[in-house]
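In this section we walk through a basic example: taking a raw amino acid sequence and producing a predicted 3D structure, encoded as discrete structure tokens. The instruction is simple. Fold the sequence below.
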Amino acid sequence: MSRAASAAPPPPRGPVATLSEVTVSFPDASIDYRRHPECYRIGHGERGVFHVQPYKDELLPLWAIRNEADARQAVAELHARYCDYRERGDFVGMDMARKYLQMGYTRARRYARYPGGRKKDAQGRLRQPRNVDAEKARIAECYRERLDRVRADEVYQQAKREHQRRLKSRR
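The resulting token sequence is shown next.
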């Protein structure tokens, strides 16, 4: 009998009921984090921005840094979505909207400081940062202003503390 034939099939991937029943690798794109917010980890920075469903599908199409007009519209739409999540008491949605605002800020700053957004030259050497794109710097500032408002929002801060408290109590 071949080695491959004797191996057990991998367990099926389905919805996760609770953290105590399963060890979850975050972020796991197969999980519906709206139905299972207990599986959500805040993570560092923008972690999970392309994997946390269904929020990725709702927020990514809104995100833009191509030009200032598109970015301003994106910031307004992302913040409006944040407010919708806030109104519904959906912390995971609020935090994901914050992450998209943060990603807009960090990406725009990178493009403002490095030609083409590349930190390294063709030989792989680090470039010296400089302000090369004034429009991207304005875009970054637009994202940063809204990001700061979200971070300072008392409702967001309280929901974040509560989410962290719930996760800690489940361990």
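Looking at the output, two observations stand out. The radius of gyration is 20 Å. The chain has six helices and no strands. In the next section we compare this with other chains.
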